[in-house]
Amino acid sequence: VIVTLTTDFGEESPYVAAMKGILLSVNPQARIVDLSHQIPPQDVRHAAFFLAGAMPYFPCEAIHVIVVDPGVGTKRAILYVEVAGHRLLAPDNGCWTLLPGSASPTRVIRLTEDRYWRHPVSATFHGRDIFAPAAGHLSLGVPPHLLGLETMEWVRLGIPAPRLEPNYLAGEVIFIDHFGNLITNIPGKALDQLRGPRRFTVGDTVITRQVHSYGEAEPGTVVALVSSEGMVEIAVNQGSAAKQLQARIGALVTVAS
Amino acid sequence: VIVTLTTDFGEESPYVAAMKGILLSVNPQARIVDLSHQIPPQDVRHAAFFLAGAMPYFPCEAIHVIVVDPGVGTKRAILYVEVAGHRLLAPDNGCWTLLPGSASPTRVIRLTEDRYWRHPVSATFHGRDIFAPAAGHLSLGVPPHLLGLETMEWVRLGIPAPRLEPNYLAGEVIFIDHFGNLITNIPGKALDQLRGPRRFTVGDTVITRQVHSYGEAEPGTVVALVSSEGMVEIAVNQGSAAKQLQARIGALVTVAS
Amino acid sequence: VIVTLTTDFGEESPYVAAMKGILLSVNPQARIVDLSHQIPPQDVRHAAFFLAGAMPYFPCEAIHVIVVDPGVGTKRAILYVEVAGHRLLAPDNGCWTLLPGSASPTRVIRLTEDRYWRHPVSATFHGRDIFAPAAGHLSLGVPPHLLGLETMEWVRLGIPAPRLEPNYLAGEVIFIDHFGNLITNIPGKALDQLRGPRRFTVGDTVITRQVHSYGEAEPGTVVALVSSEGMVEIAVNQGSAAKQLQARIGALVTVAS
């Protein structure tokens, strides 16, 4: 069984390795797939966008373990979730609630059965002591309902709603990728409702060039396009829009015609 | 068979990939598990703490390959070690000697049998030419005694001893993790011998707040706690104690009551 | 079947994870091996040196997927290549043309058969939509000729030729590794034609110390040696030659006697 790992642990510390050790101790046949250990520390929102762009592409048999967990050791719950056919273990901080289908998950269980945990359970490393062994047992076929109690309550994250008017769209930067591309909350389809030439803005920068792919523009040019996830994106061919436009998460983006 | 890799090679160079290629050429069924390729360059001590926090959690069948090797190509030996049921290959620089049980390893063999190596053996890349093929052969079931000669001599690292008095503990920062948490050489259990309210110091900073988990404190607060490995730790909830206190490896940490 | 991944995607974005998901959806038995996701963004030449130092060590059964692809979405082709017994999928930007044997590959196919792709195919993420599913189908045993049409045209990269005179060698830095070692285009064997003591230069720095391995010199000393790939290399024991000499790709390196 495939078990994927997504954490903010980095690689210079032994935390990811400890989780892999426990997982393989519980189920030596588990097939571990690293998704990322470079989620920015404690950045639950980043983790949520990351998962939304990754998990849906996996086969449903996989078990996804997400440990971006600023609330470790407090009363925040740990959840087992089935959503749109996918299965995951995550802290109850909303990191899974931007996934397609997350408005109506098939099943959400609050982990309570500590016989599937490692003991003693530390207060600061539930990745090793709860997530990894629970994932190991799941991958061995332990039925999820044995892990704890079904619940109807959990933390939800939202994406800020863009303003979509007939000739004017306004949204914000919600994710910045490794290349410095700025992904917004404006759906690419909303561009269809604009007539005439489009004028994008990010802060003081005006962008009039819309392309289908980065390489259509000269290197260094700021362009707008529709991202691989279908959202309006601002990019610089062979450069970083984030650096060039000094743009951050939350920066206002508008489109007018 | 699981073969884990721990190196200081980073990922932008082809060195890790070359090791994986050789390993899979010798044993196409080897199951490679990356522990870290972000050990700081040539930092044997960091590697030693990393391993102590990772290896004990693995099942004993695994073979651990560690290549943090500033002495590559010199006369330093390469060792096969069995310690507390775990098996590893490492340069003889002490990187495995902070592991539990390392004071009395079951077996230490100095690699000499070059028929298990790749030829020609370069002077600068034993990871590819010795470690990877030797690990591949081990994972195929070659008995360790065929790799070389048993030895009773090897390099040992030590952890500086803390000073533990009835009402005063003094130690130092021995590891800084990805989050900037400062792990010290003061055992958490030693805190029990202090009566009355505890007062921690790191450099000029006085810390009076002790917690069980980061999230108990407000974001940005400096706190003391017992780490997941049982040591006194100084942390900042959702921040970096290393940055906020400008603390480095070796910084003095005291606890008084 | 082993499928290796080499990209410039980093890990904080979901792109690598999405590729792994699609690959495992097409072939749940694929054994994914990460080579690197830290190729500098859009740096095709870096990718080419990386592959030349990694791919030859793998068993021939592996399928190598390389996505360093500044031309994604433009008319650049995607190639399936068989070279010296190895198999790879890569954008047609020359990234595979520094591999041994690349002057006469056994077979080069231009991917055209979109039934092996994911649909709809985005204009900006062919890693997910073309490379990953095509690799998945190859790993399931789909014969390569079904993927597209054989071609005799592709982009080639070259390594700048060094000047090799009886008592004078001149070349340049062509790769800088994770440790800051400077790898040049001067073959180590060419050193044999110099008589008398050798004098290396990088910019203004003169190096007279040649070693076999880093550890022969005192920490901080600049030395010349022959790299693990057989090229003249400038290094600093336990330091970074790139930083210490402020050297970049293309920096002139000479050897005289």
Question: What order do the helices and strands come in, and which of them pair?
Answer:
Three copies of one chain form a homotrimer.
Chain A: E1 2-7, H1 15-26, E2 31-36, H2 44-52, E3 63-67, E4 78-83, E5 86-91, E6 107-111, H3 126-139, E7 148-150, E8 163-165, E9 168-176, E10 182-187, E11 199-202, E12 205-207, E13 222-226, E14 231-236, H4 241-244, E15 252-256
Parallel strand pairs in A: 1-2, 1-3, 3-5
Antiparallel strand pairs in A: 4-5, 4-6, 6-7, 8-9, 9-10, 9-15, 10-14, 11-12, 11-15, 13-14
Helix pairs in contact in A: 1-3
Order of helices and strands of chain A: EHEHEEEEHEEEEEEEEHE
* Proportion of beta-strand residues of chain A: 25-35%
Instruction: Give the termini separation of chain A.
Output: 51 Å
Largest sheet of chain A: 8 strands, antiparallel
Query: Overall mean pLDDT score of chain A?
Result: 96
Structural class of chain A: alpha+beta
Kindly provide the radius of gyration of chain A, computed on alpha-carbon positions and rounded to a whole number of angstroms: 21 Å
Counted beta strands of chain A = 15
Low-confidence sequence ranges of chain A = none
Helix content, binned percent of chain A: 10-25%
**Silhouette of chain A:** elongated
Kindly describe this structure.
The structure is a homotrimer of 257-residue chains. Chain A contains four helices and 15 strands. The radius of gyration of chain A is 21 Å and the shape is elongated. In chain A, helix 1 (15-26) packs parallel to helix 3. By secondary structure, chain A is of the alpha+beta class. Chains A and B meet through helix 1 of A and strand 1, strand 2 and helix 2 of B.
